[in-house]
Structure prediction request, 50 residues.
Amino acid sequence: MHRCFTEWTTARMRVKLYRLLLDELGARGELDWSRCAIDSVSVRAVTWAT
Prediction:
């Protein structure tokens, strides 16, 4: 199972499947972008003194 997960992750299968789903729903007019939310995570960069 781990090997399959690794291969799918490398091939970006989840992203591709998600895009196909969004394209299909968009073609049917079943997406409501007025309720769309964008989320991001910020992580402070750490610099190491040498």
About this structure: The CA atoms of residues 9 and 15 lie 9 Å apart. Residues 2-27 form one domain. The chain is about 50% helix and 0% strand. The mean pLDDT is 83.
